[in-house]
Amino acid sequence: MSTTLAERMPLHGAAPRTGRIPGNKGIWVGICCEFAEFLVLFAVYFVARAHFPGDFTAGSGRLNLWAGTWITVAMVGSSFCIASSVVTLRNGRRRVSIAWLIAGLLLALTYPAIKVHEVQWNLAHDIHGSAGIFFTVYYYLTINHMVHAFWGILGILWVLFRHLTAVYTPEDHDGLEALASYWHATDIIWLVLFAFFYILV
Questions:
Q1: What backbone torsions phi and psi does residue 104 show, to the nearest 5 degrees?
Q2: What CA–CA distance (Å, rounded) separates 104 from 82?
Q3: Residues 163, 180: Cα–Cα separation, whole Å
Q4: How does pLDDT run across 19-78, given as a tens digit for each residue?
Q5: What confidence tens digit (pLDDT) does each residue in 77-134 have?
Q6: How far apart (Å, rounded) are the C-alpha atoms in residues 74 and 89?
Q7: CA distance 63 to 122
Q8: 187 band by pLDDT with thresholds 50, 70 and 90
Q9: CB atoms inside a 10 Å sphere around CB 47
């Protein structure tokens, strides 16, 4: 009896099964809720910007562009590392996968560290929530994102613990995929926030 190419393909290094959602349904419900929440917040952003265009133009120039840029580098770099962790585990390279996940965690932790520095810099330059409508919206959206990123960091710690205890295998690693999916979604939202507050206005 003849076999198909997919049946003859070895497990390690093989492409993931098609027709399946990475992670699990629960994490995608959470991601959809996260996107829905930020769609509402983005609507608030555009309404405020339409009513106070001058405040948004002036406010953006006062933000610390370097802090926003480094947060972007940290988020994108962390997403890359976590994605690499998924790929290397699929290829049966468990130790390398763990190393990538640790690297992703370290980069993710630089986000709150930079954010604390940025807030301190803002306050030293009289940039606070009551300094104008632009900064009110800026703090509200970025703090909301920081909360979601904090949940993601807790998720990385939990998945790393499970990875270290050999819970995940090349055949079964839905938890790692779920983490990667959530972190990528959080990364995408930050890229939009970075553009809205630090660049486009």
A1: -65, -40
A2: 6
A3: 14
A4: 667 768 889 999 999 999 999 999 999 999 999 999 998 888 899 999 999 999 999 999
A5: 999 999 999 999 999 999 999 999 999 999 999 999 999 999 999 999 988 878 889 9
A6: 22
A7: 7
A8: very high
A9: 11
Tokens of 182: 């959530």
Q: Which residues of 2-27 are buried (b: 16+ CB within 10 A; e: fewer)?
A: eeeeeeeeeeeeeeeeeeeebbeeeb
- Residues 27, 159: contact at Cβ < 8 Å? no
10 Å CB burial of residue 120 (0-12, 13-18, 19+) is: exposed
38-200 CATH choice from 1.20.1250.20, 1.20.120.80, 1.10.8.100, 3.30.1300.10: 1.20.120.80
Within the chain, where are the H helices? Answer: 5-8, 25-51, 53-60, 65-90, 94-124, 133-164, 174-194
Residue 187 CB coordination number (10 Å): 21
CA–CA gap between residue 110 and residue 78 (Å, rounded): 10
CA 146, 78, 14: angle at the middle one, nearest 5?
A: 135
Question: Contact at 8 Å (CB) between 76 and 107?
Answer: no
Contact 56, 49 (CB under 8 A): yes
